[in-house]
Amino acid sequence: MSRVARADAASVSSATFAPLESPTFRAIWLAAQLSGLGWLFQTVAVSWLMATISTSDVMVALVQTSTTLPVFILSIFAGAIADNFSRRHVMAIGWCVIALSSIMLTAVVALGFYNPWMILAFSCLAGCGAAFTDPAWHASVGDILRKREVPAAVTLISVGYNAMRSIGPALGGVVVASFGPLAAFAAATLTYLAMLWAIGLYKWSGRASPLPREPLSTAIHDGARFTALSGEIKAAIARGFLFGLTSISILALLPLVARDQLGGGPIAYGVLMAGFGAGALCAGISNNALRRSLSQERLTTLACIACAACCLALAFTPSLVVAAIALTLGGAGWVVTWTGLDVSVQLSSPRWVVGRTLSIYSALSSGGVAVGSWIWGVVAENHSLTLALEASAGALLLVAATGLLLPIRQWKEADQDSLGFETPALALDLKSRSGPIVVKIEYSIPEANVETFLDQMQERRRVQSRAGARHWNLQRDLQEPLHWTETFRTPTWMDYLRLNHRLTAEDRELDRSLLELHAGELPPRTRLAIERPTGAPRRREQSGSFFFRR
User: Fold this and answer.
1) How far apart are CA 123 and CA 42, in angstroms?
2) Quick one: which of 347, 352, 328 has its CA closest to 498?
3) pLDDT, tens digit, for every residue of 501-526?
4) Are 494 and 210 in contact (CB under 8 A)?
5) How far apart are CA 429 and CA 248, in angstroms?
6) What is the pLDDT of residue 108?
7) CA distance 271 to 314
8) How far apart are CA 62 and CA 368, in angstroms?
């Protein structure tokens, strides 16, 4: 790893436990650990209950699908809502849904009125709540803490959850074996109520926008456009989908490993899950040290190889101890990969869109997990458990090689906060819906600077387009070759204002670079105009054009 890469890694690394100095983050984080413990209690109880009342391997594997498929379907809507409304309120609603599903599941089990499809339905409802809580919570990290603390905070979230994973499944197995699934469901419900209490007690808010709230459809479209134009985010999403698709075999088939291959019961299953969680915990605690020693791409590749080794060990070992040790390796690879990809998306996203980029990443990653759970369950049922684990190991090795095509760039600290924008004085009385607006920025570029100018305008096109510019193009005057014009459109005047409010300090650096290439005595001139179709009725806001100097 180069000195530059190490410096970049150090610039975004704070002490692992530094974010806990924030009372709000500490309270929500602690409540998240308690509710995470309850979630694991419920997962163990549901998985084992399904394994005992159904003889279908696919039904057992679909327990994972039932909680992840709703995340795939709903996350993009949840991300748009989290960016337009209070993220704290979105979290509260999501946890209410999770608590409701747990209460209903507890009730039907207590009454003895349940079947495999009913269990999957309540798991699906819990997954719907998780679809809203996860993007809002991860996006809130940047609202509660300083940007340089985000990697440590994301690591802490993974460390905390996997600390619970190291003890939760074992405790859950003991509870299920000693008192039955009903007790596990009731305990989980209490932990969810504790999370709601913490959210109600501690308050935080995002940075308020001076502009009106976006319509949901527009917010979703803008988030999808930004994601499509960000190479770093697309790479993280693709790797997350492939990793989820291939590595979920470890967790989806683990009840079958415990029941069929090891001949154990719920306690054995809990021990295996504890091994997985212990590995995840150790990797999470040492994550900062690992990042300083290796690039994130190298860590992700090694993590995929570790998970492949875990699958192969589970496929052949008849020993509970060996299986638990192998799962520590898989747990370590699991948390290193997901933490790295999560932080990569966060650090590549401005605050105005971070909820949506995280939700798209979460949706496609969860989609990979949901599809993978079904695929490996089908392979195990129609062929054998051993073949399913062997095939997933081979697939994980192929995913490790995708780093050659979709590398994860080294993290670096950049100012992604949106800057203020002074609305230009207009000669016309425009309304927010007036448009389309045509923007023309005129440059004077000497011949010696043309090549550099074109390179920077390529980046300029990406920056402007992902912030909302449409039909961007660059023109050169045939009679005055020094004269260049950058042109783009926005559908309405409000869209033009949103575009400028979305540009970050890092984006504005590009303006300064272009200014250095500009040869005119005055800075580049920006002209604003509103289109008027020929033959359209006259309207005051569509009767002219205007410009201002920037």
Assistant:
1) 9
2) 352
3) 888 777 778 888 888 888 877 888 88
4) no
5) 57
6) 86
7) 14
8) 13
3-state secondary structure 31-96: HHHHHHHHHHHHHHHHHHHHHHHCCCHHHHHHHHHHHHHHHHHHHHHHHHHHHHCCHHHHHHHHHH
* Cβ atoms of 130 and 94 closer than 8 Å: yes
pLDDT of residue 163: 66
What is residue 410's predicted lDDT score, i.e. its pLDDT? 64
CA distance 520 to 394: 60
**Spans of the chain below 70 pLDDT:** 1-16, 55, 57, 61, 64, 147, 162-163, 165-170, 206-211, 410-420, 534-550
For residue 493, the SS3 value is helix
For 12-37, b where at least 16 C-beta lie within 10 A, e where not — what string? bbbebebbbebebbbbbbebbbbbbb
d(CA 361, CA 343): 11
Q: pLDDT for 157-180, tens place per residue?
A: 777 776 676 666 667 777 877 787
Cα(4)–Cα(236) distance, integer angstroms: 22
CA 201 to chain centre: 26
CB 162 within 8 A of CB 331: yes
Q: How far apart are CA 222 and CA 49, in angstroms?
A: 43
Decide: 193 and 99 in contact? Cβ < 8 Å.
yes
Angle between helices 266-285 and 23-53 in degrees, nearest 10: 150
For residues 407 and 344, what is the distance between their CA atoms, to the nearest angstrom? 11
Q: Report the distance separating Cα 52 and Cα 116, nearest Å.
A: 10
Residue length of the chain = 550
For residues 183 and 35, what is the distance between their CA atoms, to the nearest angstrom? 15
Q: Are 41 and 102 in contact (CB under 8 A)?
A: no
Phi, psi of 475 (to 5 degrees): -125, 145
Q: Is 545 helix (H, G, I), strand (E, B) or coil?
A: strand
